[in-house]
Amino acid sequence: MHLSYIIFTSILVLVALWLAYFYLKPSxxxxxxNIYTDALNxxxxxxxxxxxxxxxxxxxxxxxxxxxYLQLGNLLRDEEPDRATKIHQMLxxxxxxxxxxxxxxxxxxxxxxEKTGELxxxxxxxxxxxxxxxxxxxxxxxxxxxxxxxxxxxxxxKIAKELQKSKSFRGRINLSKYTLEKGIKHLNNNxxxxxxxxxxxxxxxxxxxxxxxxxxxxxxxxxxxxxxxxEYWEKYMELEPSNSSSVFDSIETALFxxxxxxxxxxxxxxxxxKNPDDVNAGQRxxxxxxxxxxxxxxxxxxxxxxxxxxxxxxxxxxxxxLSLLTKTPSELSHxxxxxxxxxxxxxx
Length: 348
What we know:
mainly alpha; 19 helices
C-alpha cells in the first residue's frame, strides 16, 4: 500500500512537471513573432540592414511565415533584384494562400520584374492581380506606367480609360496625350497623313493641350506652309509658355524665310509682354536689336535681367558680349570676374 502510494505520487509529480514545461516553456512561435515585430520596427526606422537580418532569422525559424518572406524580398529588391524575384516566385506556389496575400505576392513580383527590366513579365503579374480583383487600383495604375514605358500607346489609352472609370481613382488623365504619342509615332515613320489626323483629333478632344499644335506646326513647315506653321507654333507658345523657347528657332527662321524680318523683333516683344521673365526671349531680342545697330537698347534690355535676383551665366555673358565695343578694359574685366564668381558658386 505504501509502495503504491509512492508510485502514484511520483507519476503525479512527473505529469505536473511535464505540464509545467509544456505550458511555461518559451513558445517558438511567440519568439518568431517577436523577431518579426522587431523587423517591422526596423523597417519603420529605415534600418534596412537590421530588418533584412531579422527577417532572415524569422524565415530560418519558420519557413511558413509568408509575410516575412514577402517583406524580405521587398527589401532585397533594390540591391539584389534577382534574389527578390526568386523569393516571391517561390511564394506563388504556396497552397491555401488568402486572396489578399496572393495579391501582395503578385504585386511584389511585378515590381521585381520592373526592377530587372523585364517589363512584359511585370505586365503579366499585374494582370494576374486584376483577375483576382478587377477593380484593383494599384494594378491598373501600374499597367498604365508599364504601357507608357513600353510606348504601347493603344494599350495605355485602354488602361487609362479603365482607370478613369474607377471610383477610387482621384487623379486626372489627359487621354489626348496618348493620341498625341500615336501621332508622333506615325510622324517618325514619315506617315504624315496619319500623324496630321491624330494631332487634330488630340486638339479636338483637348483644345487647351499645347503639344499637338507644335507638331502640326512642324508638319506645316515640312510642307513649306510657313505662315500656317508660325500660327500653330504661336498657339503652342500661348498654351505652353514655360516651353515656348523650344520653337523660337523655328519661328525666327520661318519669319526670315518669309522675308518678314521686322516681325522677328515684334514677335519677341510680344513674348516678353506676356512673360517679362522669359530670359530666352530677352536674349534673342537683344541679339536682334544689336544686329540692327541699336546696341544701347540691347544692353538696357539685358540689364533688366541682370538686375533680377540670381541672373544666369548666359545673361552675364550676353551683357559681356554687348559691352565689348562700348566699355573699357577694366569694366570688361569686372564683368568677367562676375561671371567667374557665378561659375564658382555653380560648381560648388
